[in-house]
Amino acid sequence: MSELSTQSVQPTNIEEVVADARDAIPSLVAQIVTDIRAEVPVYAGKENGERHRVIAMAVTAAVHQFLDTVLGPTKHDPNVFRLFRDMGYGEAQDGNTLEPMRRALRIATRHSWRLIHRLVTTHGLDTAFLGRLGDALFAYIDHLDQEVARGHEVGLTTPEPDDEPLRSRLLAALLEDSPESDARTTEIEAEAMSAEWPLPDQVVVMRVSYHGHFPTVSLDDRVLLDERSNPAVLVSPPEVAEAVAEKVSRGSPGVRVAMSWPVAPTAAASADRWARRALDLVAAGVIEPHHVVHCVDHMTQLWLHAEPMLRRRLVLQLLPPLLNETPNSREILAETMLAWLECRDSAPAIAARLNVHPQTVRYRWKRINELFGDLLHEPEFVISVTMILKATVPMWKAGDTSDVTRYLEQTGAS
Q: Could you give the count of Cα atoms lying within 13 Å of 123 in the half-sphere of its Cβ?
């Protein structure tokens, strides 16, 4: 499919034209759906019914993608084309020919062309550019028609899938790490509709580590599960998530569940990263090993460990004085330094926090001042070292000496 911008220089106000076009999408979609229901009998159905919603989602996604191409060369979202292939597949499964879908595409083309013509005239663009826009629109619609035909051909030879593959495909769509967009929202809504899964406004993602086999427990039908890997993944509505986590965690020995906080369905991939990272941090000794780990209670650690290579680089940059200490000295000095940086309290208060004698805190703090000197009075250093200690001290206390090993290898120290 050719790109419009490769054929000519874009008008200077093209972004304004596209913005106005996006604002007009809801009314455009309403007009298209109304005419399709009126002119294509097989698509009449009831207003706001399932077919109505699918058509509206498809048109919305397609229009947004076409407008993206108007602004300049762009990578087409494959999910939009897959949506039209799925519609063609559904037509075949319903016993329909391609004629109703092609009539619907002609109606969509008619209304889209009217909108383009009106906007080009309103913004004073020349007729030559209008012609190029028309060529691009017709080429784009032709491509959608080809996708529909491909799906229809597959549907004529493939039996209708059962619910489990559809739910698996929905789960895969939710966990796909793609930028949030209207097209992505449309894809998830379409997959949820195909799987007959009521899509909630928010979801909770859980990762479950286990020994042997996944716990044999009965789960709410609103829960999506993929147990083929370890950790397994579950996605559920927030209102049942806590009960699901408790049930799964008690399903067999050695099970641990890390659960995200509620997020929009389009952010499920991010929530999945948090849950997986939480399990990793439990294994590293950074997070306490509860049966159910709530990511919301460990946001700072999840954030600080989001870039392991960056954390290691900052350790080597900021903490050489501690890395040169003996293992026991390094651990107790780092713990004391972090406690002081976090609360800036008196020696007795810090001593109570660390469960040591105040004089011990004073001795340690004297040693810390000898190691770091004036850096302890530089605000930027204090902020950075507080964060890196917060991320690193739990690892050192858990016995992870990889930072020291890297430091010794790089400096040749012994």
A: 20
Task: Write down all domains in the chain, each with its CATH number in brackets.
Answer: 4-160 (1.10.490), 201-304 (no CATH), 308-411 (no CATH)
- Which of left, alpha, beta for 196 (phi over 0: left; psi -120 to 50: alpha)? left
Whole-prediction pTM value?
Answer: 0.59
CA 310 centroid distance within chain: 22
Which H helix or E strand runs over 259? Answer: strand 256-259
Q: DSSP letter at 9?
A: P
Backbone angles phi, psi at 207, to 5 degrees: -115, 135
Q: Which stretch of DSSP H or E encloses residue 224?
A: strand 224-226
Q: Which amino acid is present at 118? A: R
Cα 155 to Cα 98, 161, 170, 321, distances in angstroms = 12, 10, 19, 67
Q: Tokens at residue 15, please? A: 């972004």
Query: How many CB atoms sit inside 10 A of residue 117's CB?
Result: 13
What pLDDT was estimated at residue 163?
Answer: 52
Phi, psi of 224 (to 5 degrees): -95, 135
Residue whose token pair is 């008008």: 11
Measured distance CA(235)–CA(192) in Å, rounded: 13
What residues does 235 pair with on adjacent strands?
205, 224
DSSP string, 146-158: HHHHHHHHHHHHS
Cα 255 from Cα 277, distance rounded (Å)? 16
What pLDDT is stored for residue 7 in this prediction? 44
Instruction: Give whichever of 14-18, 91-95, 297-301, 305-309 has the largest mean pLDDT.
Output: 297-301
Place of tokens 């060369």: 73
Distance in angstroms (rounded) separating the CA atoms of residues 283 and 185: 34
Mean pLDDT of 121-150: 88
Query: Alpha-carbon distance 348 to 354, whole Å?
Result: 10
pLDDT averaged over the chain?
87
Share of residues in the chain with pLDDT > 90 (%): 47
The answer on pLDDT for 252 being more than 80 is yes
Q: What is the per-residue pLDDT for 53?
A: 78
User: How far is the CA of 395 from the CAs of 160, 311, 313, 400, in angstroms?
Assistant: 51, 12, 15, 5
Helix (H) or strand (E) holding 225: strand 224-226
- Count of Cβ atoms closer than 10 Å to residue 370 Cβ: 9
Structure token digits, residue 140 = 């784009």
Beta strand 292-294 with 256-259: parallel, antiparallel or unpaired?
parallel
